[in-house]
Specification:
31% of the residues lie in helices and 25% in strands. The chain has a domain of 126 residues: Beta Barrel (OB fold (Dihydrolipoamide Acetyltransferase, E2P)). It has an eight-stranded mixed beta sheet, sandwiched between helices. A five-stranded mixed barrel has the order 1-2-3-5-4. Strands 7-9-8 form a three-stranded antiparallel beta sheet, with no helix packed on it. It is α+β, with helices and mostly antiparallel strands. Helix 7 crosses helix 9, helix 7 packs across helix 15 and helix 11 runs parallel beside helix 12.
């Protein structure tokens, strides 16, 4: 963000015009305006209009985008949230005073109300023949003539309000985002899930492996953390007797920024009693397909230079088979010494600690396979070492009943048969806490209250989290998470710093956004 203490960027000539208008007795910044029509409604109602003016008048309001002056006539483009329309202003119709007011004081960026009749110009443009207008807001900051292209990409993120004013396609992206979230909520509501809100400020963070943001509550005299996931609180609700729950939550992780990570992000977490990880795979697939069908009406969507095919059923692979198929490595056919050598050959980070075969499986999958998972693919059967909240696999020793959904090389969903054995959960938390004690800042804390909660008995439960920002990226053909978050996290610019270049990415390791 730009430093909020910097001076404003008011255009002094516009400030002077406000002063002049007040001296003329023009009421500035009126509190209300009775708009009777949206521009979209006008265009729809008069889609078949001819060159003759409509009998009925319309009253619209919006922002001026273009002003074209031709002596005693002026053409202007007016826009509201629903679209744009051309205005035709004549001196003979408005009279000298009103026409001069428009001619001298109305400019790009100003917001006006207009009453007039609709007609079609000789060039075929639906137009409002203006009978009267009211200046509603005089903009004191000048809109840029052009506000798009790579050189301005950081400025668009920092000044999203300007981006939304001048870039219709970006405004449409956020309309689609709003609709996607609405359809997600409707799907869950229609299928009997209850939506809850759980704490954002937490005394113990958990539900994922991530570095938290830390704060301090003066009155309580204790350290608190911004949540990294709502998981442990939603499971408390399951213990309390709610059987189908979800939360669309804002989560916060104190880690890097790149094309698919933002420190503040949105996800949905869903829990369903008496279901397991295979049921949650099906639920995840059904939710996404339902949204795609209602938003696009087809299951093949462009994403960058590829086409994503969301037609169900989606591909499913165990992590072991995925590494065999896509990396050509049979993990369990090699001893640890050979795997260590292979990791070195593939330039995979190999910490001093000893890894077992399952840990090498994780390392090879993350380094060599994830980015190759372009079409929707469920990867399942994760090692217990990186799944501290998932139930142990019913048939595979050392593994859990966990899956992740990958699309376009990104993890979009994460779910499992939830661990409900309190003794096992305590041991796993203790193992995580030992990692944290040894310097792993992303390892989870021990949440004794949560352990006690499931000690009262949590039924067999399936859970899944879906990253909403990443899903919106995929469904709107945007390759950066900053394009689908209205106000992404940005480094504050100091005086004299430019913003024409892409902000540097944090080189630190990233954890998946929906874990």
């Amino acid at each position: 963000m730009t430093d909020p203490t910097e001076n404003t960027v008011f255009d002094q000539t516009r400030i002077d015009k406000i002063t002049a208008l007040r001296e003329k007795g023009v009421a500035m910044f009126p509190p209300v305006y009775e708009r009777k029509d949206t521009i979209s409604e006008v265009r729809t109602k008069y889609a078949e209009i001819t060159h003759d003016k409509s009998e009925e008048s319309v009253t619209v309001a919006g922002r001026i985008y273009i002003v074209r002056k031709h002596g005693k006539t002026i053409f202007a483009d007016l826009g509201d949230e629903s679209g744009r329309i051309q205005l035709y202003i004549r001196k003979n119709d408005l009279g000298d005073e009103q026409f001069d007011l428009f001619n001298q004081y109305i400019e790009r960026g100003d917001i006006i109300g207009v009453t007039g009749h609709v007609f079609r110009t000789k060039l075929g443009e639906i137009t409002i023949w203006v009978d009267s207008f009211v200046l509603l807001t005089k903009a004191v900051c000048s809109l840029p003539e052009k506000f798009h292209g790579l050189k301005d990409v950081e400025k668009r993120y920092r000044q999203r309000y300007v981006d939304l004013i001048v870039n219709d396609e970006n405004r449409q992206t956020f309309r689609n985002r709003s609709r996607i979230i609405s359809l997600l909520r409707r799907y869950l509501d229609d299928n009997g899930f209850l939506e809850f809100e759980t704490p954002i400020l937490q005394p113990v963070y958990g539900g994922a492996n991530a570095r938290p943001f830390t704060t301090y509550h003066n009155f309580l005299d204790q350290k608190l953390f911004l949540r990294i996931a709502p998981e442990l609180y939603l499971k408390r609700l399951v213990v309390g007797g709610f059987e189908k729950v979800f939360e669309i939550s804002r989560n916060f992780r104190n880690e890097g920024v790149d094309a698919d990570h933002n420190p503040e992000f949105t996800m949905v977490e869903i829990y369903w009693v008496y279901r397991d990880f295979s049921d949650m795979m099906a639920l995840c697939e059904n939710i996404v397909c339902s949204i795609i069908d209602q938003v696009h009406g087809k299951y093949e969507l462009p994403f960058g230079e590829t086409t994503l095919n969301f037609t169900a059923p989606w591909k499913k692979l165990s992590m072991e088979d995925a590494v065999k198929e896509m990396a050509g490595i049979d993990i369990f056919a090699h001893p640890v010494e050979v795997l260590k050598k292979l990791a070195h050959e593939h330039k995979i980070e190999d910490p001093d600690k000893t890894r077992n075969q399952r840990e090498y499986l994780i390392a090879f999958f993350e380094a060599l396979v994830e980015e190759k998972l372009i079409q929707p693919t469920f990867i399942y059967d994760y090692p217990v070492e990186n799944s501290p909240l998932a139930k142990r696999h019913r048939t595979k020793e050392g593994f859990t009943e966990r899956f992740e959904l990958f699309i376009a090389g990104m993890e979009v969903g994460n779910g499992f048969s939830e661990l409900n054995d309190p003794v096992d959960q305590k041991e796993r938390f203790e193992a995580q806490d030992e990692k944290r004690r040894l310097g792993d800042v992303e390892a989870q804390m021990i949440d004794y209250d949560f352990i006690n909660a499931i000690g009262y008995g949590m039924p067999p439960t399936g859970g899944v989290g879906i990253g909403i920002d990443r899903l919106v990226m995929l469904l709107t053909n945007n390759n950066s998470i900053k394009e689908v978050i209205l106000f992404p996290s940005m480094k504050t610019l100091k005086a004299g710093e430019g913003d024409d270049e892409e902000e540097a990415e944090d080189p630190s390791p990233k954890k998946e956004g929906t874990e």
